Amino acid sequence: FQTLMDALSAERSVTDSDQIPVLKPIPLEEFEQICRPSASLINQALSGELILPEFGSFCQDVRRLYSRCKSIKEGETSKHIKQLERQAPDLWGVSICTVDGQRFSVGNHATPFSMQSLRDVLIYTLAITECGQEEVHSHVGKEPAGDVPDSLVLD
After folding, report:
1. Is 25 exposed, middle or buried (CB count within 10 Å of its CB: 0-12, 13-18, 19+)?
2. CB-based burial of residue 102 (10 Å sphere; 0-12 exposed, 13-18 middle, 19+ buried)?
3. Nearest Cα to Cα of residue 100 among 154, 55, 152
4. Is 133 exposed, middle or buried, given 0-12, 13-18 or 19+ CB atoms closer than 10 A?
5. What band does 2 get if pLDDT is binned at 50, 70 and 90?
6. Strand positions, DSSP E, the chain
């Protein structure tokens, strides 16, 4: 979607004799070429069939939850993972991108952070999606083991 927006805004603004910005028209063929890679998203948006049709309302709910959770100061940063131990505990951010490209961010979302154990959640979710719960759970348990990450354990 960002590529579409960049293409639509690239060199489209000029100023008239009074220095007022004026948008240059886009020829139909060029407009079609610019929009073609995002045709599915545009169609979904125009027909009200986005994954979250009420995305603005959804974002307001997320912002409210973010505000309520930001004040929670319980817990502490991990001591057994050095990258997490060095993280500032007061940083808090949320970023959401739906599968159809709707995006929302709030808080310290632009601050780099260490993914560490978050990768486990992503891999688990992908495995469930690709293989189904029954197949995945025939290989891995459903409860956390409580072991230190990357520890060697023999059964």
Report:
1. exposed
2. buried
3. 55
4. exposed
5. low
6. 13-15, 21-23, 93-97, 103-107
User: What number is the average pLDDT over the span 31-59?
Assistant: 83
Look at phi and psi of residue 20 and say left if phi exceeds 0, alpha if psi is from -120 to 50, else beta.
Answer: beta
Tokens representing 10 are: 């690239």
CB neighbourhood size of 55 (10 A)? 17
Can you say whether residue 146 is alpha, beta or left, with left for phi > 0 and alpha for psi between -120 and 50 degrees?
left
pLDDT at 59: 93
Helix (H) or strand (E) holding 72: none
φ, ψ for residue 53 (rounded to 5)? -60, -30
DSSP 38: G
